Amino acid sequence: MTAAPPVEVRGLTKTYGDITAVDNVDLTVEAGDVFGYLGPNGAGKTTSMRMMLGLIRPTGGEVRLFGRDPQDSISALEGVAGFVEAPRFYPYLDALTNLQLLASLDGGEAKKRISEVLEVVELTDRAGDKVGGYSHGMRQRLGIAASLLRDPKLLMLDEPATGLDPAGMRDMRLLVRRLADEGMTVLLSSHLLAEVEEVCDRVAIIRKGQIAYQGRLDDLRREAGLSYTLRTTDDQVAASVVKGFDAVEADPQDDGSLRFHPRDEQAVAELSSRLTSAGALIIEMAPRSATLEELFFKLTEGAA
Amino acid sequence: MRRPSTFAVYRWEIRKLRAQKRTYLGIGAAVFVPLAFTIAVALRPGEPRDVPFGRYIHETGLSIPLVMLLFGSIWFFPLITALVAGDIVANEDQNGTLKTILTRSVDRTQVFAAKVMAAVSYAVFAVVLSSGVALVAGLLVSGFNPITTLSGQRVAPGEGLGLVGASIGVYLIPIVAIASIALLFSTVFKNSAAAVVGTLMLSLLLQLVIIIPGLGGLKPYLLSTQFNSWQGLLRSPIDWDPVIRAAWVCSAYSIPALLIALVVFLRRDVTGG
Questions:
Q1: How far apart are CA B172 and CA B268, in angstroms?
Q2: Mean of the per-residue pLDDT values for chain A?
Q3: Domain total of chain A
Q4: pLDDT digits (tens, 9 = 90+) for B128-150
Q5: Which of A92-101, A181-190, A224-233, A265-274 has the highest mean pLDDT?
Q6: Are the C-beta atoms of A226 and A218 separated by less than 8 Å?
Q7: Fewer CB in 10 Å around end: N or C, chain A?
């Protein structure tokens, strides 16, 4: 019998009056995934994650965490931890007391992990300070510490790097990557493309509450197709050669160069030969992968 | 993960209360007001003759906490009660910490039960503390002397002390009902100030209802009336009717309020924070 996946979402829908915040979302996060849940602000990521954590009741569909429905019982969150939007704590208590409180709400056994998790997020020296005086970045790290207290198999982080400075964002990415390398399944939502591109191996892109793409990041790049940048000694001639060659599609660029999409590698070789014959000597013909940013905009701003 | 006991969750609710300034605002008032009243009694020769036991404040310190119970029922004790009970759920909503605790291994019913217990504990503590301060200060100023009951019978100081203690106990029945209503408002409004003010307004409105022509018959069933039920203990023989009525009338207020609050709390979408 195969184990249930950490996250399985089917037909998940949430409506507020006439507004559909999440529309029939299907999502599967497999064990060991570092899964990016990507979308622009207001696309429905946070609402989806709140439903996954049992904080919001879905209007339709269902969520299963390791096969259990968080709406049925809190025990569905066994082995699951994380936060939605900014992690929140009691500002009038210090970080250590906040963690002790949360450990108690986890049954008390987690108390012995407090020192360890504070060390992981490098807050040991500030553990005695009231959280009200913490910076945004420190609260984000404390949020991770509070999640790790539960010794989770699935970590769900909603926009963990939002509001952090570049160094904080880098540290957060490294931390997530390290946790993933230790075997934790991570579901990470973000509107920051770089964050997802560097950390995640699988993604779902959500747009206006609907999933626009779900799969491996590499497949997504491949699906968008390989393109080449072309610069020659005579761009006008080159443009006419490309135009007259059916095996490639070209997009002129502002700097006078061309970007073209070949049907296959043979077409690249043939184009090279035709350019040389026409007297447009090649200065640069370099393959370039489509960036996630291009794909992201294509998927989220494409056909409405 | 092991699910914590509701008592463990309750202990943390108390710990949170102990760390918040507003808790001490109510406790401070609960201590200061009876002290100020007793100092005024010591310094001024007159007495509030129009309230039960008012005429005896210079004769026996046992009368001071009873007079305080009467004065406190209009807004003082309801306000102290609502200050915490009206805040205890709404505060978590406003701080965004509700999502933090509801994604641990504790279910919503446990969280709600712990909050009810903590709010009631605080209200009971405040009333008992305030009455205790009034009693001690009263004994110092007016002495530990016999008290005259509402039936005109003089009761020995020891027995009188027992009656004062029992009166405070009966007084807690409507206090629990006020706490329940404040908890309901706290859960529904998700706003501390609205819950506190709403509870106080309701408490005052219920006292005004009886002056509306034709509504006088409602008086025995109003929450405000139950704040006087303890006076049945200070009659000879003891009149249990108002005490029994207070028990079921207050239950009729608090049980539906708590049930509605629980259902709202269980079914609500936690979107704050």
A1: 30
A2: 88
A3: 2
A4: 999 999 999 999 999 999 999 99
A5: A92-101
A6: no
A7: N
Q: What is the ipTM of this complex?
A: 0.89
User: Are the Cβ atoms of B3 and A85 closer than 8 angstroms?
Assistant: no
- Token pair, residue A235, equals 């761009």
Cβ B15–A87 below 8 Å, yes or no? no
d(CA A39, CA A36): 9
Q: What single-letter DSSP state applies at residue B5?
A: P
CB atoms A74 and B105 under 8 Å = yes
Angle at Cα A199 formed by Cα A186 and Cα A216, nearest 5°? 80
Local structure of residue B147 (DSSP, 8 states): E
How many independent structural domains does chain B possess? 1
Amino acid at the residue B92: E
Residue to mutate among A104, A134, A157, with most B CBs inside 10 A, is A104
CB pair distance less than 8 Å for A56 and B271 = yes
Among B6, B87, B103, most A C-beta atoms within 10 A, so best to mutate, is B103
Cβ neighbours around A175 below 10 Å, total: 19
Of chain B, the end-to-end C-alpha distance in Å amounts to 25
Q: What is the pTM of this model?
A: 0.87
Q: Quick one: pLDDT band at residue A303, thresholds 50, 70, 90?
A: very low
Q: Is residue A167 part of a domain?
A: yes
- Counting residues of chain A whose pLDDT is more than 70, the rounded percentage is 95
Same domain, residue pair A266 and A171: no
Tokens representing A289? Answer: 């992968």
Is residue A304 one of the residues assigned to a domain?
Answer: no
**Domain, as residue range, for A35:** 7-218
Q: In this structure, are A172 and A91 located in the same domain?
A: yes
Q: Does B94 touch chain A (CB under 8 A)?
A: no
B272 located within any domain: no
Are residues B105 and A54, on separate chains, in Cβ contact within 8 Å? no
